[in-house]
């Protein structure tokens, strides 16, 4: 979820037309204001839990689906979105009732429908959009509905991803230095990556100690888990940056001032949430995914 204000260039174009030097912070004001609103909404839904939490993340997933279909372009966007909505709503209902197999079946059926409706050359891209949005939806509901530690697991995830987002932004702009992967995302630096992931690791560990107490937090495993999750979050940023370059698009949308679209804000969080849900489910089962994630 780290900031990527650079414009996406067409394939083969130079990575950036900006002069060398540290990027400016002229976009900081709109970013801060939008971030406060988004963080407040996310925390409010987490605190409320239940249907409010599910509806909040269903809305986010629907926005991602719409932006994905718009981003890849092609014919019958509205029809593709309609079938995708049916798939995501079905997945949310089944996952809320602890039926992940049926939730994944809904996504698979939706992917087939979108591929059928899309024009030649965009069938796989269109189908991938519902899987991309739906994976976030299933993962975050799975974590929050965990029998134990559901609230703490999602709060830890927020702390890790938000911290790497914020601190990578400031680290990259204040320190500068070598670029991380300029061909895909010209604004990201090694300094931003290291500052972001280290701070995220500490933030996640601190959030757990505050919620659970020092005795219930295994320091080294949680620090390493936070670092790895933050690194995956930044990898999610690169995936979306590469996708936007593939289709010569600057932002996935314009819904959020200073940030672009919902995809632009949740690209890193999406990958981190999927990783957390898979790891937690592997360790403790799908009904206790958050417990498996945090219990070391």
Brief summary of the model shown:
This protein is mainly alpha-helical and 296 residues long. Helices cover 71% and strands 3% of the residues.
Written account of the structure:
With 296 residues, this protein is mainly α. The chain is 71% helix and 3% strand. The chain contains ten helices and two strands, in the order ααααααββαααα. It has helices spanning 28-48, 50-72, 77-96, 100-117, 123-144, 150-175, 190-212, 219-246, 262-284, 289-294; strands at 179-181, 185-189. Helix 3 runs antiparallel to helix 4 (100-117). It has a two-stranded antiparallel sheet. The two termini are 26 Å apart. It has two domains: 48-145; 148-296, no CATH class. Mean pLDDT is 89; it is low at 1-23.
Secondary-structure map with pairings?
Layout lengths: L27 H21 L1 H23 L4 H20 L3 H18 L5 H22 L5 H26 L3 E3 L3 E5 H23 L6 H28 L15 H23 L4 H6 L2
Antiparallel strand pairs: 1-2
Average pLDDT, all residues: 89
Major β-sheet profile: 2 strands, antiparallel
What is the terminal-to-terminal distance? 26 Å
Percent of residues in helices comes to over 70%
Physical arrangement of strands within the biggest beta sheet: 1-2
């Amino acid at each position: 979820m780290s900031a990527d204000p650079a414009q996406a260039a067409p394939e083969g174009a130079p990575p950036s037309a900006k002069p060398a030097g540290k990027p400016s912070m002229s976009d900081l004001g709109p970013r801060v204001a939008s971030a406060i609103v988004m963080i407040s909404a996310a925390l409010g839904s987490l605190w409320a839990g239940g249907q409010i939490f599910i509806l909040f993340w269903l809305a986010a997933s629907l926005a991602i689906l719409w932006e994905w279909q718009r981003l890849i372009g092609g014919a019958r966007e509205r029809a593709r979105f309609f079938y995708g909505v049916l798939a995501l709503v079905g997945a949310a209902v089944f996952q809320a009732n602890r039926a992940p197999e049926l939730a994944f079946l809904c996504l698979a059926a939706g992917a087939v429908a979108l591929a059928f409706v899309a024009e030649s050359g965009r069938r796989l891209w269109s189908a991938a959009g519902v899987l991309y949005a739906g994976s976030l939806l299933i993962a975050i509901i799975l974590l929050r509905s965990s029998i134990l530690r559901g609230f703490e697991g999602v709060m830890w995830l927020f702390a890790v991803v938000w911290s790497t987002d914020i601190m990578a932004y400031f680290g990259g702009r204040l320190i500068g230095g070598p670029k991380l992967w300029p061909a895909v995302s010209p604004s990201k630096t090694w300094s931003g990556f290291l500052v972001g992931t280290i701070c995220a690791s500490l933030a996640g560990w601190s959030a757990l100690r505050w919620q659970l107490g020092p005795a219930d937090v295994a320091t080294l495993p949680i620090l390493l888990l936070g670092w790895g999750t933050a690194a995956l979050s930044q990898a999610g940023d690169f995936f979306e940056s590469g996708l936007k370059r593939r289709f010569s698009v600057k932002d996935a949308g314009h819904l959020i001032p200073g940030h672009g679209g919902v995809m632009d804000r949740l690209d890193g969080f999406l990958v981190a949430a999927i990783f957390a849900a898979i790891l937690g489910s592997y360790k403790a089962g799908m009904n206790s995914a958050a417990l498996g994630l945090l219990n070391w």
